[in-house]
Design a protein that fits this description.
This protein is 27% helix and 37% strand. By secondary structure, it is of the alpha+beta class. The strands form five sheets. Strands 2-11-15-13-12-16 form a six-stranded antiparallel beta barrel. The chain has a four-stranded antiparallel sheet with strand order 3-10-8-5, with no helix packed on it.
């Protein structure tokens, strides 16, 4: 029995030895790695940066009242097109009791003065007619009467302004009627009938009754990183992509670059503005988020390769591996030009006929032939 176990163990160990030897033998076989190749081709490269921001009206104003009171009528709503001078709202004045009392007292005093001036005038008029007093002396009574009449008129107007917000001399114009100061579109009406409003003065910004903007003149406002701002110049072309209208590309022209950056989450950002040059085919709403592609440099009909083909030596000099025979490659230094992050211009080092080492072939799949210039250009 013991002899049987010994023979069994010897057979098991021998089998394990043979299996291990067979595994190591197969593993030690070097399987040659085959690589695909690519060729340089003629194409165009556009180097650009992206700025994020939004589209806003160039001219957007706040309509504010010229006196304090309560909104009694609203004549507009958001989205309405208006012209210069169109009515926005009507305000009912709530007079200050102290000011109202003073205005009424002024009217009463002015009437008393007018009565007194009339009596003096009527008493001295017969004397002047009979030649008892001179014209110069009589003129004082005439002037006093005229001043008294003017004071009554001014006091009455002041009382009406304090009480009603309207002057009798203003005709149709009235501070209680709020009118638009520009032609455009009503963007928002943040008040309702019955709301109290405050006039703008040195101590208060006043209550905004409506926001009005000219929607035919829109600008893009965005920010770019400090690493890119030095490459920007006024007059550069931008292509806007709106978040709400993804399939629409809108041209714009860079017209402002902020001279001062701001710190945003540890990165310095510079504000830019660009005039939108064509909005005939699309309606743009104020506040749309947008991305702006800014063309920094572009070249047409140049020899390019994929950046994935590039390698770098210890001195960080670029090179590629060019095929010299069947799966045989040699190092070839290259001089590079403009790049868009995917493809790079080749100024020297390779030609369109050279086959450049790319990625290894996938096991079990035939090697893909190098695409021709026409196919590569179509893919680009």
């Amino acid at each position: 029995m013991k002899r049987f176990f010994k023979i069994f163990l010897i057979i098991v160990f021998a089998g394990l030895f043979l299996l291990t030897f067979y595994y190591l033998f197969n593993k030690g076989k070097s399987v040659p790695v085959e690589y695909t190749t690519e060729q340089a081709f003629v194409s165009s490269i556009v180097k650009k940066t992206v700025a994020t921001g939004s589209v806003v009206p160039r001219n957007e104003i706040e309509i504010k009242p010229q006196l304090s009171g309560i909104i009694s009528e609203l004549y507009v709503e958001a989205g309405k097109e208006i012209k210069y001078g169109d009515l926005i709202a009507k305000i009912k004045v709530i007079p200050n009791m102290s000011n109202l009392n003073n205005a009424e007292n002024r009217v009463n005093r002015s009437k008393i003065s007018l009565d007194n001036a009339k009596k003096d005038f009527n008493r001295n008029k017969p004397l002047f007619d009979e030649g008892v007093i001179s014209q110069q002396e009589f003129q004082r009574f005439t002037l006093a009467l005229d001043n008294a009449k003017e004071e009554v008129s001014a006091a009455s107007d002041n009382l009406r302004i304090v009480r009603d917000g309207v002057s009798s001399k203003s005709g149709k114009a009235s501070n209680t009627l709020v009118r638009s100061t520009i032609a455009g579109t009503i963007l928002d009406v943040p008040v309702e009938v019955g709301n109290s409003v405050i006039e703008a003065n040195n101590f208060n910004a006043g209550t905004t009754i409506a926001f009005v903007a000219d929607m035919d003149k829109m600008v893009f406002e965005g920010k770019v990183d400090e690493s890119e701002v030095g490459k920007l110049k006024l007059g550069m072309d931008l292509i806007l992509t709106l978040g709400a209208i993804e399939d629409q590309k809108i041209p714009a022209t860079l017209e402002y670059i902020s001279p001062k950056g701001v710190d945003e989450q540890g990165a310095i950002q510079f504000e830019i503005k660009a005039a939108i040059t064509n909005t005939e085919n699309v309606f743009i709403r104020a506040g749309y988020s947008a991305n702006a592609d800014i063309v920094l440099e572009s070249k047409d009909s140049i020899l390019v390769i994929s950046e994935s083909l590039l390698q770098f030596d210890k001195a960080k000099n670029p090179f590629v591996e060019v095929e010299t025979g069947n799966q045989q490659f040699e190092k070839q230094d290259v001089t590079l030009g403009i790049s868009d992050g995917l493809f790079v211009e080749v100024l020297d080092g390779v030609t369109a006929e050279d086959k450049i080492k790319s990625k290894p072939k996938e096991a079990g799949k035939p090697a893909a032939s190098a695409p021709g210039k026409k196919n590569r250009r179509g893919k680009r």
